Amino acid sequence: MELKQFENTSALDMSLADEVSDRLRQSIQKQGHGSLVLSGGRTPMGFFHQLSQQVLDWSKVTVTLADERWVNADHNDSNEKLVKENLLINEAHCAKFLSLKNSAETAVSGEAELEAELSKYGQFTVVILGMGDDGHTASLFPGAEALPSGLAMDSGRSCIAVTPTEAPHERISMTLPRLLNTERLIVHISGQNKQKVLEQANEGNNVEELPIRAILQQTQVPATVFWAI
Fold it and tell me: Which residues, 6 or more positions from 55, have their beta carbon under 8 angstroms from its beta carbon?
């Protein structure tokens, strides 16, 4: 695990936007397209705005999410709403968005349709994950009934429905093997509380206790942590 530390979130946001846009440009040049998997929450808001201003052929970029609450896209808790309002603007307005939320009534009943949709995509260009104070990443929550399935590398699954033990809303989350199927893997965190969780994650190896360990300690793809004080 590589750690890149920044003195403030503004410096991190600018550096991360440069890194991601460079990766997308390279992918477009080599393959004709690029893909970007994002996480929601407050932490990436500044990064989204910085990235939205990067000049590249956004029409050849597919943007999606590592996880989503099973709510309509106009709901205030929707990660899709967050991304569309804060990233898919300015230069990035013409990027394609792949929604994880479909018309199924529940996340469980929507799994099969999303699996079929995700199967159309190969290796992602960049995956950016967050980390909760409880050590969860995407919607792979400690204590959740679906967690073992979400972490299993041999499941053959791209997504799973998750009911968090404490957080609101049923979720849909990409699985660990699908998240690791990327050229570039980044964990984006800020604040001293997150630093403590990161240190705790590095000290043990029980991935079900702190699911972020499955990202930080795997050897399939190099992971870089972008952290600001």
Answer: 91
The four Cα atoms 100, 91, 131, 76 give a dihedral, to 10 degrees, of -60
Looking at domain 2-228, which of 1.10.150.20, 3.10.100.10, 3.40.50.1360, 3.40.50.2300 is its CATH number? 3.40.50.1360
Specify the DSSP class assigned to residue 8.
S
Helices 45-52, 79-86: inter-axial angle, 10-degree rounding: 40
Place of tokens 């360990």: 213
The CA distance from 28 to 141, in Å, is 34
The answer to whether the beta carbons of residues 221 and 187 sit under 8 Å apart is: no
The answer, yes or no, to whether residue 167 has pLDDT greater than 90, is no
Q: What is the pLDDT of residues 17-30, one digit of tens each?
A: 999 999 999 999 99
Please name the amino acid found at residue 154. D
Q: Give which of 122, 123, 118, 173 is closest to 144, Cα–Cα.
A: 173
What is the DSSP annotation of 57-86? -GGGEEEEESEEESS-TTSTT-HHHHHHHH
Instruction: Assess contact for 149 and 162: CB atoms under 8 A.
Output: no
**Could you tell me which residue, 229 or 46, shows the higher pLDDT?**
46
The pLDDT value given to residue 168:
83
